[in-house]
Structures are given as C-alpha cells and as structure tokens.
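Figure caption, in words: inputs first, then the predicted bound structure.
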Amino acid sequence: MAQLHGDAQGSAPALRVTSLSKTFPGTRALDDVSLEVQPGHIHALLGGNGSGKSTLIKVLAGVYHGDPGGEITVGTASAHSDKTSPQWARQAGLHFVHQNPGVFPTMTVAENMAIGRGFETTGIGSIKWRALKRRTAELLERFQIQATPDMPVGLLRPADRTMVAIARALQDQEGGHDGVLVLDEPTASLPASEVDVLLTALRRYAAAGQTIIFVTHRLDEVIAISDRVSVLRDGRHVATIDTEGKNEMDLVELIVGRALDRVFPEMPPVESEEAALEVRGLVAGPLRGVDFTLRKGEVLGIAGLLGSGRTELLKALFGAYPLAAGQVLLDGQPVRFKGVEQAMDAGIAYIPEDRAAEAAFLDMSLRENVSASQVRHYWRGLRHRHGAEGVDARRSITDYMVKAHSDQQPFGTLSGGNQQKVVLARWLRRRPKLLLLDEPTQGVDVNARAEIYGAVRRAVEEGTSVIVVTSDFEELSRVADRVIVLAHGRVVAQVAAPHIEPHRLTELAFASAGDTTRKVAAS
Amino acid sequence: MTTAHTSAGASTDETEVAVASSGLGPDAGPRTAPARTLWSRVTPLLEQYGLLILFLLMFFIFASFWDRPATFRSGANLRSVLGTYSVPGVLALAAIVPLVCGQFDLTVGSVAGLTALSTAAALTRFEYSLAVAVVLAVAIGLAVGLLNGYLVAYVGVNAFITTLGMASVIAGLITLYTNGDTIIIGDRTLGALGADNFLGIPMILYALAVVAIVVYYLLGHTPFGRYLHSIGSNPTAARLVGLDVRRLVMLSFVLSAVISAIAGVLLVARNGNANPQVGGQILTLPALAAAFLGATAIRPGRFNVVGTLLAVFFVAFALSGLNLNDVSQWITDFFTGAALVAAVALSTVIGRRRAGAS
Ligand SMILES: Nc1ncnc2c1ncn2[C@@H]1O[C@H](COP(=O)(O)OP(=O)(O)OP(=O)(O)O)[C@@H](O)[C@H]1O
Ligand SMILES: [Mg+2]
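Bound structure (adenosine-5'-triphosphate present):
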C-alpha cells in the first residue's frame, strides 16, 4: 500500500503555485503567493480569518480566476493563474471537498456517488442501478467507510458524510495517487469524536500515497496529522515549515505574527447565587425532561453528542422551537414565549449553529447584517437613520476586528470567520441578559476565538448570563463555570469549574446515560 | 469609510522560522496590471448604470436618426409615452413589493382590471361619487391581497400557484359581470386626471410619482422595508432575528394588491372607460418584466424603485421608437418578453456574483 511513499522523496512537487495574486474590488485577497506541496504529504494551510485560504482554494478549483502573472502546476500540467477552470482542475487531478461537503442527505450513498460523475445508463436511458451499487460498494471498501450503498446519506455519521464526499471527489482517480485532494475546513462543523474518525482516515489515505491539502483552525489537528504547514497572513505567504517538532504556540505565532500569551480570557468567578434562568422538566423534540439552573453572570456549558438535543434546548429557550411541557423561569418569572420576538424583548439572544442557513443574509450588506437584530433602533422621526446605522456598523467592525473593506460589503463576500464575528456583534450589541451560543467559534481563527470569548467576558461582567454549546470540550473546559452533560434528552451529569477536563467531558458524553444523574465534583 | 488593509509588510520577516523556498520578500508589491484594476473599478459602475446608459443611448438614436426623429422627440410624443406608461409603472411598483421578500404576485394586472371595472361601474351604473368608487377599489384590493397573503403566508400554498389561480378567478368574475362589454365613464375629475397636463407634464405622471415616493420610502426608509429585504434574503434567519415572517409576507401581498387597485382607478382615468379585455396577464407580464429589469440597475441584485421606473420607461420609449419607425406590432410582445428573460438571466448572474458564490 505504501509503495509510493518511499520514492516520493526528492521528486517533483505534487502542486506548485507561483506568484499567485487575486484582487477583488477593494481587497487584495492573495498577494504574490508561491508555495509547493510534496507528493504524499498532508499539507496544512493555515491563516487567520480572511487571510486568503478559501480564495486560494477557489482559484485552484477554477471557481475564481487569479490575476494574470502567476502559474499553477499540478504534476506535469501547468496553467496560467488567470486561465484555470473547473475542467482544467479536474483534468490536472485536483479534487476538492469544500467546507459544506455538498452531499444530498435524502439520497442514498450510491446516488450521491453517481451525482459527482454522472449516472451510467443503459441503451434506453435508464440508470444501471446494479453496476452503480457494485461500484459504490467498491469505493466504500477502498475508503473504508462504514456504510452500504443503499443508506440515505443523512443517516450516516457526520464524519462518514464527509468521507463520502471525499470518496466522491477521488472516485475517478485511477488506482494511483497522482492527484491532490484539497479539503476546506473539513472538521469545522464536526464534533470532536467525529474529527478523530476523519483524521484517522486522512492519515490512512496519505500513508497510501495520497497528497492532501487541508484548511483548519484547530491547531491540535495540524500537529497531529500534517507533515508540513503553510501559513498565509493578509493574503501573503508567510512561511512553509515542517510540522515535526513544532507546537501549537509556534503555529499561533506564525498565524498572528506575534506571540499570544493567553488564548482564552479568564472569566470572572460567579458571585451571585441568584438564578437568572431556571428550567424545570422541559420537554421538546428529543428533550425528555431537562432541569437546570443558571446563575446570574454564570457561563454554563452544555456538552453532549450529536443528536442529544443541545440545539433544540437553546432554540426552545429562544422561543424558536415548540415546548411540549415544562417550565422556564427567567429572573424568577415564569415565561412562555410564543415567538422569537418575545424572547428578544425579554433580553435573550441566540447565535445559531448553522450560520449559512440560520443567521446569514448573504446578499445584504455587512451593515444590514449587523443591525438585523435592532432595525427599529434606527427608526427615528419617521425615517430610517442610515447614517447612524453606518456609524454603529463601523464601530462593530472595529470592536470585533472584522476584516472588511467597507460596511457596505456584501456579507457573502466576507470570509467564514469574519461572518461569524458579525453575527456575534449583531447580538452582543443588544446587551442581552441571557446569551445562548451554539458552536460560536466554528470556523474562527485562534486570535478571533480569544476575541470572541473576550467579548463574551465583557458581556458577563456587565451582568449577562451565558449558555454555550460547543463540541470543542477543550474550549468548554476553559470558558465554562459549570458544564452539564446531555444524553438521551436529559441532564445526566454536571461538572463544576476547577474540575472540568476535556477527557472527562468526552467520557461523560459517551457513557450511556438514562440512569441516575451523577454529580461530579461539587463546589 | 474603509478599514485600512495593512499588509503584513515588515512583520513577515520578523518571524524566526525559515521562509519557504519560493521567493518572497519586501519586493512582493502590487503586481496586477493597472488595466485590470481600472476594469475592476469600472465594472460595478457599469452594473449600476448600464440600463441608464442604454436608455440614454436608445433615446439619442431615436431622437436623432431613422425615419421620424422629430416626431419621436416632440413634446406630444414624450407626453403620450409618459402618460400611457404611468399605469404600467404603478403596476411594476406593486409587483416589486412581494418580490422584495421573495414572492411572486401574478395578480397585479388582474386586480387593476377588476378595480378599473368596479370604478367604472360604480360611477356609471350606480352613479356613486368618485370618493365612494375609489374606496370600493381599495377595498377590493385589500380583499384580494389579504386572501393571497393568507394563502401564501399562513396556509403555505406556493405564491406562484396561488396568484396564478387567483388571476384566473378574477378573469372569470370580470367576464361574468361585464359579458365582455366596455363601460364608459363620464366623470370629469377622473377624465382630467387621465388626459390633462399640469405644468406641461401629464397629470397621471404625478400620480405615478406619488406612488413611487411612497414605495421608495416604505422599502428603503422604514423597518418594514428592511424586514421584507431580510425575508427575501433568508427567511429562516429573518425568523431568528425576531421577525413575524408570515405577517410580513401577507402584508406585502396586501400592499401590492392595494397599489394595483389604485392602478386600476388610474387605468379608467387614462382610458376613459373600463375594457374587460384590458387587464390580467396583458398588464401583469410587463410589470414583472420591468421589476426584474429594474433589479439589474441602480442597486444591482435588488428590486428597487428607481431601477424599476427606469426599466418601465426604457421599454416604453424603445417601443415608441420602434413603432414610429413602422416596425410592425409583433415587436411589442416580442420586445417585452425578450427583455424579461434577458433581465432575469442578468440579475441572477449579478446576484450570484454579489453573494460571492458560483
Ligand atoms: N467575492 C469576493 N468579493 C470581495 N472580497 C472577497 C470575495 N471573496 C473573498 N473576499 C475577501 O478576500 C479576503 C480573503 O477571504 P478568504 O475567504 O479567502 O479568507 P479565509 O482565509 O478563507 O478566511 P476564513 O478562515 O475566515 O475562512 C477576505 O478579506 C474577504 O473579505
Ligand atoms: Mg475560508
């Protein structure tokens, strides 16, 4: 299997990018970038939000044309940077899995595979189902994906879904591994346990000789599986180094350009014993009787596996998901919201997990996005105060370090992490009493992650109470005063501040629940 | 104001790690050809003012060359075109209100046809006052709008199907009531509104201006307008920032139908009669065409009032010019249809590029 790995040494690079620039109106997203990727390597592409990683990948994929003057070489095929096209990329052997893997959940694995390359048909135009299934079964075998051709993709584990997308991208590569597999943030929306499954698979493909480029903001992954790292900063290529012997701090320094002393801010200890929120016997969707209390100024983490009802819990509290039973007390007063507006009036803010589907107004401007939660605020004297709205938007851009060339820039042209910061600003500027965060740092770079929690911390100091859901248990252990673990629709465990450890949370989340609530480490 | 884009510059070299083999250093300055930068600056302007430029060009050609440039640029012809296309202008404005929140209203022309008829009947057959006739028309608009809006927003029927069906229902009702007969009106005030000029400009154009200002204000300068845009952009996200999406969608249909009802009254004023043949798709399609064409101009990718008016009069003067030069009648439908398809294709492409996708 690993025959290719040996003779890869010293041979020509699998991918070479020379003097690549890309200018958008108002922004230079890539500035004279040159880099090489060795065959059989796992090559990580790192950089802060808006540093140009996705743009680089889109130029390789032929989605964007680069500025003239550069060159892209894959193996023996070469193209001018302004002449790439999806057809060229495919012929040259570049295979892409974009951040949203683009699988169709209601269709079967076999159908998803066929969509990438076209259905084989018989003489009269009907699909050759038998042949398709056989081919799919072979692919599943080759990529060691635990699924059958007939399964709807929506039923697969998230990591397997991404692997189906990978298998689909690579299916036409005949046997050998001359091509390059490019993955844009494949792990950003995967829960921690799934990340391991995917990384193991990537390591296996690389061991078989597959060249892989991948983008991520999770530096532990980079250390764990990559051979080399290239770092972009403000569209420029800063460095390419071997991963061996480097730690996360070294990488952070390269990405940010200076040492970061603390990635997470200290949260002030909770002083108040007063309850900000009490939840009693809440039944909604997968939740079957959830009880907990959130104190004033507390940061409460919720851990749990996919499908444990974490998102539904937050949505139910925000009036966006119907409650079947149970009681919610906000500041001691029972509340029952008919809709989101009532929850907002009561001082609740919710940042959803799926930004593209639930928070983004892609074709509207950054300004309109950031003020979407308080449009009425600018309605004075019978007209909308566009000027005041712009001033506030520009202040948010500065406060939250959003990388944008103007507050009128269409939201869809912001980089992923910068979009996330804008959504955060949209809600924090309302100064909510209760802040519900669902995976708030996905796709966000190390620096911005600290900024985001810094902003949360400032809100906490002003009296906001916070519930945060994240699959990154490391992050939970740093920011939460207390963590409750959800499983089977109930709270099955809770862990308080000095005792919150990532591996403990993983254990608790996996431990089959349903029995008694375990109290681990009180006080 | 733009956030300054500091390039890494010197700090790049401060990192202690060996810089990659590839050449990179302080000389990595701007390398793009200036022509390209210029082009990238011109493209947005072209996008924004393309239709305006086209309009001026077309106007200049018809006013200077071909068979009858003098007739084309005569005051009488200009007034006639402006007057005749005021009603389609109002209907196009009616159409953009639901379009902004992502919904089609195919009843705009039908409602106008219906209220034209109700106005004429109220004045002539029942001899009510003009005020009563107008109130009746608005009430009809309200009723149709509420029904459309309720079915789309609360019952969840596809807007295309709802309004297409409703348009057919209205056509049936019109035939039932009129038996195909035209109703002539004798009301002085209405007649003057349709035919007279004020300061050399057709009165009915002022009516269009009033409607345009109201719609412009509602869509661009009130929370309501912003909310409709948000819903059009992403209804789920709109719900999660606290908007009552269903009520707002219903309101957009109500507003569209009420404006269409007013267009019906103006239609009677302009024609001096209510002809059951005028209405329905004959009026709806050009209105939608103008709305989509307008979304490619001024604020590209967005349905907007100024762009829509520009589109209406672009089509109007183009048709007038072609007709004056004896291009036969088929051109009217052909040109309107071609403009619709071209405009939708264009605004789709522009919209996609603005969202950064593709
Ligand atoms: N279509 C576009 N029009 C204008 N500017 C754009 C467009 N696409 C990207 N940009 C800008 O280019 C810069 C680089 O964006 P890119 O998406 O490549 O960043 P990224 O490194 O992938 O960031 P993230 O980690 O947040 O995903 C950003 O400043 C972004 O605003
Ligand atoms: Mg990106």
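The pocket of magnesium ion (ligand 2) is lined by residues A 53-54, 415-416 (CB under 6 Å).
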